[in-house]
């Protein structure tokens, strides 16, 4: 099968095997100086993105839903609980500060973007009535901030 002028590769391993392989590669690659600057989840994301775009991994599969609904929340909970009980509260707060700061910046950016979207679609472009634009802005905020 051809896409444009490039042939599609006919071999694609099962999605679960691709995900496990990408995760293993990311954990091994993080020992290199360049990859050390990135986290294993980011390396896994970049690996799977590359494999999917190369046609070596399907773009959609039930295994991805399982990862998003089961494995990701479990990984987040494990990461949060992995600090030793002997560590004081101030140590935990100082370790969590960069993540909390990034979340706050992202939340503020999401709210600001939603307000700009509401203003643009109701006043400047007049695409939506204000009530519909407010619902869309609220859905975006709730989705991306975690509501």
TrEMBL record:
The domain of life for this entry's organism is Eukaryota
Q: Which segments cross the bilayer?
A: 95-117
Q: Which InterPro entries match?
A: DUF819
Q: Which UniProt keywords apply?
A: Membrane, Transmembrane, Transmembrane helix
Protein name as it appears in the record = Uncharacterized protein
């Amino acid at each position: 099968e051809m896409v444009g002028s490039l042939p599609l590769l006919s071999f694609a391993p099962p999605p679960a095997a691709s995900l496990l392989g990408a995760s293993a590669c990311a954990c091994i690659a993080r020992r290199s100086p360049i990859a050390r600057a990135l986290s294993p989840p980011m390396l896994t994301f970049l690996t799977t993105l590359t494999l999917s775009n190369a046609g070596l991994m399907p773009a959609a599969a039930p295994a991805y839903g399982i990862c998003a609904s089961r494995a990701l929340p479990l990984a987040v909970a494990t990461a949060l609980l992995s600090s030793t009980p002997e560590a004081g509260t101030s140590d935990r707060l100082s370790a969590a500060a960069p993540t909390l700061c990034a979340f706050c910046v992202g939340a503020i950016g999401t709210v600001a973007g939603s307000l700009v979207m509401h203003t643009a679609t109701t006043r400047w472009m007049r695409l939506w009535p204000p009530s519909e634009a407010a619902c869309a802005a609220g859905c975006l905020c709730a989705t991306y901030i975690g509501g």
